[in-house]
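hi support,

uploading two proteins for the ticket. first:
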Amino acid sequence: MTAATGAEPAERTAGPNECRLVDGETALVASVVDGDTLVLDSGLEVRLVGIQAPKLPLGRPDFTAWPLAEEAKTALERMALGQAAQLRYGGARRDRYGRALAHVEILPEDGEVLWLQREMVASGLARVYSFADNRQCVGALMKVERDARKSGLGLWPDPYYAIRPATDPGLATRHDEYDLVAGRVVSVGERGPTLAEDGIAVAALRGQRVRLRGWIESHDGPSLRVTHPEQLELLDQW
């Protein structure tokens, strides 16, 4: 890739824009772990699927809190702590730690229902973060994220969360960091049916400006593994 330049007239996610969820558990929010994790009074720990808030150490040795991690936790506490919550599922329901992977709606006794994922992204205190087995509602959240980014809310003005050009040599130092990386596709290849099974013609991406999101890996230089279309934003019409 080469670095993307110019305006973004037609950016959109490559994946389908679907938001089909089914109701799950309802309980009170007993505690908040961080900006994207809470615990219900039933004891069930819930990971707010579809987003990633700035990370806290949470007992991990030699882990430095990401910028605005405490602010994200405080915002989630303000909205959710002690409130009735409705879990809604659109993909895999549990992770390897036994946490529920759910979209969460807060059900106040009076007032409007709050979709926690949307509220965190809209305030700029979380970024969209999807998985191949949990992709519902990503399109809606991406639109909210773009609005927050363009308005400079929350984490977006912080250099730690900058969208990085694919040519940035600093990517070599960001192993195991979750980044947004923009550039122009200069060559294409695909291992397995990762995008083809979703109707994405990989060859058509050549020459297009794109933005990818995911964890930076190191394989003879920095790389980012794409496992599903929602990791890919198209910055040009094609």
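and the second one:
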Amino acid sequence: MKGKKILMFGPDFFGYREKIAEELMAMGAQVDLYDERPSNSAFCKIMLRSNLKLYRPVVTKYYRQVIAENRGKDYDYVFVIKSEGINEKIFTMLRQAFPKAKFILYLWDSVENVPDGERKLALYDRVLTFDHVDAEAYNLPLRPLFCCKEYSAQPESQESYRYDAAFIGTAHSIRPRVVRQVSKICEDQGGQIFAFLFLPHKLVYYYHKLTNPAYRGIRRQDIHFDALTAEEIRAVYDQSRCILDVEHCAQRGLTMRTIEMMGMGKKLITTNTGIQNYDFYHPNNICVIDRKNPRIPKDFWTSPYVPVPGSILQRYSLRAFVEDIFDVKE
């Protein structure tokens, strides 16, 4: 990748796009990084996901500005994560502005969750996905997400933890119900759980309370409206025996949390049944629960953690992720 010029677009997601760009630069590439959306406001996200034509001029103007800022640069790659904001017209604009570039798309969402997702696949020169179902359905290379260095050091065995289980995440879809059910299981079995359900605003809570059946029994004081910092999250994970993972109902790929917990050497309780098909799965380490009626064997909490081989951990490193995306050969 040394000397390669890359124009990169990615959604704002807990700093992960910046980490990818930093890794590319550490490998010697020159990276110009932009948000894939004109704005990170809730209104912009709704407009893009609704694929409304009336908002397209706003998106087109944003990409015209990006092209104008970089016109004349001889990019080797245009790298896009998700392609939520880039429609066919904008893609054509980018292709015309940077004709020598190879266009790469990485889907860290399911195709059905991307506006006109299936039609966009044919536009790019190379497409990879984190979703094992989409990989098979559309004949795409499967590339799971990655583990950053701060989550990649498996600790030595620890005899005691402050929490038996922990959940930190946005209170969307079925999550509030599942978190509540797992909390009860944990407490009934003599354990203690740290549960942090987050929403960006109180009005969002009231909307979910009126429309989402998973919010039954969830009180406003059960929801947090100020997010934890990365340092606070890491501190909770360090003090926890198991981490609860509840993926979005409309997704099937492994969440970033799943990969990071493997890197940290933490046990995982997850609703994602597909995890049993991955090379790091071990029943001592990972308990797959039914999202409607979760059950956790009592001995799961106390059974010894089986360390993941270093060769497997390396496959999920950020460097390996970047090498797979750009098809870097040794």
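thanks. also noticed: The longest strand covers residues 163-170.
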